[in-house]
Design a protein that fits this description.
The chain is α/β, with parallel strands linked by helices and 472 residues long. It has 16 helices and 17 strands. The strands form four sheets. It has a seven-stranded mixed sheet with strand order 9-12-13-8-7-14-15, with helices on both faces. Strands 4-3-2-5-6-16 form a six-stranded mixed sheet, sandwiched between helices. A two-stranded antiparallel ribbon has the order 1-17. β5, α8 and β6 form a beta-alpha-beta unit. The longest helix has 26 residues. It is globular. The relative contact order is 0.13.
Amino acid sequence: MSTIATIPKIRDALRATFRSGLTHSIPWRQHQLYQLARMAQNERELICDALQKDLGKPKTEVLANELGSVIKRALKSAERLPDWVKAEHPEVIDRQKPWNPTIYKAPKGTVLIISPWNFPMMLSFQPLTGAIAAGCTVVLKPSELVPTFSQLLEEIVPKYLDPNAYRVVNGAIPETTKLLELQWDHIFYTGNGKVARIVASAAAKHLTPMTLELGGKSPVIIDSAYDIDLAAKRILWGKCHNAGQICVAPDYVLVQRDKQDELVRAFQKHYNAFFPKGALDSPSFGSIVSDSHYKRLTSLLSRTKGEMVLKGRADAARKRLELTIVKNVAGGDSLLEEELFGPILPIVPVDSLDQAVDFVNARSHPLVLYAFSDNESVKQRLVSETHSGGIVFNDTFQQLAVSELPFTGVGESGYGYQFMKYTYDTFTQLRSSIDMPKEAEANLAVRYLPHSEEAVKALTAAVYTPIPPSRL
């Protein structure tokens, strides 16, 4: 078990491993990726049990959304790694081709990954997969809010991954503070904006590059011409994952005012179909992670000025909270103060698409904007007139299944890219190189002092390059 005193020694040992060159071997990296997949596969029952204990997370949800994605991406990364690591030779002008311009792919070094509690398997091992592929050594700091799972990681990770290169450090604020005092070659943090500012400030002291995967209030815009029943079904499905405790959960819905009641009826219909006996005791619906989060959510509900049209039951002792849907929510309402991160869905009625766009743009950039429309001009307008990490049409949550798309935030929802090669690139340094041949000397003579009039003309020719006229 790690202690505050041992944390610097762990970092130093990992740095020594990196400098030894152990992680540079492509077959060695592929083996570690296969071992990561084996761990997820072989220890699935222990992992499911731990997440059930910590989060009340349904087993099928863990298998499908966490373990499955970890296994799939680890195997794909191992398969594609030989292509990813190849040096690149950019296309250059003819006279520069003999210089052999090359981009080498180098691992950044020893990195720190701080993962959250809500999808702890996927959000720990998604960045770790990229770090392994890139050839980095890693400290993984899982969340103290999922103690059973985090302790399990400390036990099983060394059984599968080389402990000389990958270490799990558990603990709370004191341990994280000690980690952040140290210099790292990259820090990958997933969590909330408040803590992200603390992490970024610590990283800045060492000029450490970062990836911040945060969240924010991801809105849903429904075109009044779209199938309201289908939209409700797909929004509800995305909202119910982990009881709404995921960064890409639909946070609030903007719908034409005259379609609001139709949407409410559709939500009620599909909720009853998903949970015929309600979600309070359903094994398919997760629990709230902690008492403090439970109290935060119930406080938000107690202060809303909106009308509850689907009032979820609550059980404080078990931290269980059913989905609550609130209509006629106006700007400035308690439910629009912060990212909800729970089973609450406000509906904000608007009078036009213009008003919906203005409402979204008046707030911090979300991690994802969801929109339901069959109208291509509406889609293109939302692409051009809004700003978000991602934009998803006619579904929710499912974008996470596409491993070849970059996952990213913007502004308050974070920065940096991940998923597959994008995660590999995050932990990779691009090293530019040329190799000047002796035979090029004749062509280089013009650069040497003293400069003749002809040499000056050649060296400054770019300044006089003709500029074509603009056509507006």
